[in-house]
Design a protein that fits this description.
- The chain has helices spanning about 10-20, 30-40, 50-55, 80-85, 100-110, 120-130, 150-165, 170-185, 185-190, 195-200, 205-210, and strands at about 1-5, 20-25, 45, 60-65, 70, 95, 115, 135-140, 170, 220-225, 225-230.
- It is α/β, with parallel strands linked by helices.
- The protein has one domain (about 1-230): putative 2-phosphosulfolactate phosphatase, CATH 3.90.1560.
- Strands 7-2-8-1-9 form a 5-stranded parallel β-sheet, with helices on both faces. A 4-stranded mixed β-sheet has the order 3-6-4-5. A two-stranded antiparallel sheet has the order 10-11.
- A hairpin with a 2-residue loop joins strand 4 (about 60-65) and strand 5 (about 70).
- Helix 1 runs parallel beside helix 5 and helix 6 packs across helix 7.
Length: about 230
């Protein structure tokens, strides 16, 4: 298997068209939120728009954000720590929409396999991917409203670094992402634009969790439009 790196919706769309499996990386915070939800046994339905989330039939709970703030009327924001401390009954269907992450997931539809990953599940995800028969793999950093995001590139680097340790080959761009990850202190990410935005909104605890490597060791996989826990991750 060869693992590559790309950014944003275009990168996800191109990967899907080429037949690559896709890992969507939204480190602050969609990937961590989905990981927490599936760790609780929830089924997560990603949708691109708030309106889609509002009208989605069969949802037990709704979660999401715009501009990092919780959507009015939803049960949860895009806050992994809020959800971690809340009751989410196993088997619940949670419809989920965010500014960037769910749009990139939408762009990846049609790929033979779609996962979400970040710091919180980097090792579990690498284990599952290295055992899989995916041929080629694209790790996609979501970015923020079309711009690069250092936290997503660093989290992608964490995943790719672990894939190398498991014998996976990287292309040139993926190797550069790994080099940047290895040379960057996670503490520096606490002072980037995204982190400061979350701090202003009172989400410091989310930063702590989102930067904790392997804190939520599950593998969310998109199956018929729903993220569920990969059963072969162990």
């Amino acid at each position: 298997m060869i693992a590559c790196y790309a950014g944003g919706e275009r990168g996800a769309r191109d990967a899907a068209r080429s037949g690559s499996a896709v890992v969507v990386v939204d480190a602050f915070r969609a990937s961590a939120t989905i990981a927490v939800l599936v760790s609780k046994g929830a089924r997560v339905v990603p949708v691109a728009s708030i309106e889609e989330a509002r009208v989605y039939g069969g949802a037990d709970l709704r979660a999401g954000e715009r501009g990092s703030a919780k959507v009015a009327g939803f049960d949860f924001g895009n806050s992994p720590t809020e959800i971690l401390g809340s009751e989410v009954p196993p088997g619940s269907t949670v419809v989920f929409s965010t500014t960037n992450g769910t749009r990139v997931v939408e762009a990846a539809r049609g790929a033979p396999a779609v996962f979400v990953g970040a710091f919180v599940n980097a090792s579990a995800l690498a284990n599952a991917l290295a055992r899989g028969d995916h041929g080629s793999l694209m790790v996609v950093g979501c970015g923020w409203e079309g711009r690069r995001a250092s936290e997503d590139e660093a989290a992608a680097g964490a995943i790719l670094h672990r894939l190398v340790e498991r014998g996976v080959e990287l292309d040139g761009r993926a190797r550069r992402v790994v080099e940047a990850y290895r040379g960057r202190s996670l503490e520096r990410l606490r002072d980037n634009r995204a982190a400061r935005r979350l701090e202003r909104l009172g989400y410091e605890r989310d930063l702590d969790l989102c930067l904790a490597e392997d804190a939520v060791p599950v593998v969310p996989r998109l199956v018929e439009g729903v993220f569920v826990r990969e059963t072969t991750e162990a």
